Amino acid sequence: MLNRRSPGRPKAGATEAAKSQADRVAALSQILDVLPDAAAIIDSSDRVLAASANCVAMGLIALDRIAPVELRALNREVHRLSKTQSRDSVIKRNGSRLGEWEARVQISPIDDELCLLIAQDLSEERRLNDVRRDFVANVSHELKTPVGALSLLAEAVQAADSDIDQVRHFTSRMQIEVKRLTAMISDLVALSQVQGDAPLRNSAPVDVANIINEAVDATKIAAEQKSIEVVVADDVNVGRIFGDEEQLNVALNNLLSNAIKYSPNGTRVGVGARRNDDVIEISVTDQGPGIPEADLNRIFERFYRVDPARSRDTGGTGLGLAIVKHVCANHGGDCIVWSQVGQGSTFTLRFPVYLNGAGTPTEVTGK
Known about the structure:
alpha+beta, Beta-Lactamase, Helix Hairpins, Heat Shock Protein 90, 3 domains, five-stranded antiparallel beta sheet, five-stranded mixed beta sheet, 23% strand, elongated
């Protein structure tokens, strides 16, 4: 007599297979939230058996199933071919106000029934690529001006080789363009250094008074050429900052140089420092033309100039304030600006105080 099972009772093999699959899903689900990207375990019928916490908000799953139609089609293709497939897709986030995001979706088979879905967010990558592309375009445009001028001046010198006065005039202009080109390259190198992966390699306690004195000394000749008096406040011994001394010098030097460049001859530029609780503030005040309110939010952008014509006259590269912004960010600080047209500007660098009383510096993690 055959040993028949009662109707509706699952076979032993099916029960064991289901248990084995559940065990695999349970083991794999523990690593989903550890992955940097949104991830889910799915079956051949688009059912989601386990998923990382961000899958629902990112619009990948809804009601325990794969939500985007194109990802369901990709899942069927993976099961048909039994090999990993990937596709770039625009996915609508759950919630009408959250918008869309660009994802690179990869689905890989685990066994005959299960697959692992991983969705990598491309939005930040695309944004960085756009920034890099714009930066390269801006650099190319900015370098064309002095290079083009040098080419024309060289032709002019060649044509006026018998006129000593003209040759001297053109060669002096060439020197100006060379200085502008050199300044541009120096600022590009400085910007790349402060934007690096490890911008604070040489961190140590840095005395604020020393930074100020070095910046004043470095800009002394430029100030004397315009008869500008650089006035340093009586007490700038306000403490120390934990960070890269070279970067801090570059930031303050850029602010002081700008103040001298844009201030009228015979005026004053002030430098001061104070400690406000656990923050050190270093301020540079000028008597220049001031910055229109509409431009205040953009002056830290690379190559942005309030008055391009005036910047060319002063030899500005449009990178100085971008460098200042990144130096501040690297040291856990920021830079704030007060300005009024016709009354000048005040730029204030703000950094955490070095807490040497506790034996350890204020933590600085960089960018």
